[in-house]
Amino acid sequence: MTTRHLFIGPSAPGFVPPPGIVVRPPVAAGDLLALPLTAGDTVGIVDGYFHQVRAVPHKEILALLDRGVTVLGAASTGALRAAELDTFGMRGVGQIYEDYRCGRLDADDEVALLHGPPESGYRAMSEPLVNIRACLAAAVRDGVCAPEAAERIIAALRSVPYALRSYQRFPELAGTSGLDPGELAALGRHCARNRRDVKRADALALVEALCADGRSGDSADGAVGDRTGDPVPRTVFLADWEDRARRPPGERPDHPGSLTALRVLQLFSPGFPALRRDLVLALLARECAASCGPRQTGGDAAIRHGVHRGVYPDPDEHPDGFDFLRPWLTDEEVACGDRRRQLRLFLSRSFESEPGTGRESVFLDDLEPTEEFARAARTAAACRRFTDELTAERPDFTVDRISPERIAELLVQQWGGARAEAEFHALDRGFGSFADAIEAARPYYPLVKLQPRT
How many other CB atoms are there within 10 angstroms of residue 248's CB atom? Predict the structure, then answer.
């Protein structure tokens, strides 16, 4: 059964959705990839965040189009993204989209406004420039305003921050527009009484298209079409965004996310290095069976795969030629003389996933069903709550100000061993370096430091 999602907020305050549409707050980075979407589903984008949090990236929308999801855009962020991506299959709806597509509008802040929180109904505290344009155009048609005066007002408003734009502030434009303050005040009152809301009209037009399962709304070439062109390249950035949005099957949207739970395991689970090593060796063994010949078992198959790929000579036939292992091993591991153990450590520590795949996300399918993974998710959620409470009590607090050295001391204490071996411990836990592990641990430091048993 197909689903229809609508991201909407200040463009249509008080909007009551028709049956069958899942209404969501303004879209931000990660929100689209977090939805359980399949081919045939439809997403409508009206509003989106861009200042408080990272705006929804283009590649998220392209990834949905690649899956066969219909994506519509109108009125605000949706109109902007549709004008940028309509040639790739996103469908624009409404006048604002057309104005952006044809170049009559070219600035993102034309649709921006300052508004209150969701509990206020996204109460508007400024007026978007597209609406002011429409009001002034109507005033010109009605003979209330001269065309030249309207142009001067628009030019003056373009230099005013979007959060300060309103009809009540028209008199303040006297200096930059060259118009009389009294005339500006009267025109502002006229526009306020005869307000034109282009954004709301376009948002409602998108809702009509969404109710028709996306069969309405024209793309740039007049076609209601499918995703065209090559598939979206699988970059590490897209893979990372998908990982950050991933949730275990059946979990609630407020779950901290699979990647977050994985970070907790990486950082604090005593058994994670051994578990990860087994997963890496098993993955390499499967790859060897698929590409090199008959399947072998366990770590030996992974070691043989390195021989097949020319990474190192056969350890059974050539005892020498392994000096390259030295940077990957501790002094104790070098001294042990167990070549196969050394090679297993090397394969695990040097493991890199294929391009377009997150470094550790290849193991999520194996880890998500485990109870330890569920506990890690609960720990991650507790860390987030604790940090939020700490920030509320101490507004000057931020995890970015925690000294890296203090985090390093905590990790060495958690992992055991000498500080000199921390780089090897970080590699065993799937980090590129100890410095990477320190940064990954930053959000969890306050709770783990104060409650080390968590």
Answer: 16
* CA distances for 126 relative to 51, 122, 166, 174, 250, angstroms: 15, 11, 5, 19, 40
What integer pLDDT is reported at residue 123 of this predicted model? 87
Mean pLDDT of 73-82: 96
- What is the structure's pLDDT at 299? 63
Q: How far is 410 from 404, CA to CA, in rounded Å?
A: 10
Asked if residues 444 and 387 have their Cβ atoms less than 8 Å apart, the reply is: no
Least Cα distance to 362 among 281, 283, 443, 448 occurs for 283
pTM for the model stands at 0.71
Query: How is residue 160 written in tokens?
Result: 């005013």
Show the DSSP H helices in 269-421 as ranges.
Answer: 272-291, 298-308, 331-336, 339-349, 364-367, 371-393, 404-415
For residue 393, the one-letter residue type is: E
Q: Are strands 4-7 and 21-24 parallel, antiparallel or unpaired?
A: parallel
Dihedral pair phi/psi, residue 65, rounded to 5°:
-60, -35
In this predicted structure, the answer to whether residue 218 has a pLDDT above a threshold of 50 is no
Q: What is the pLDDT of residues 344-368, one digit of tens each?
A: 999 999 998 765 556 677 888 899 9
Burial degree of 221 (CB within 10 A; 0-12, 13-18, 19+): exposed
Residue spans of the domains in the chain: they are: 1-230, 243-263+365-450, 271-358
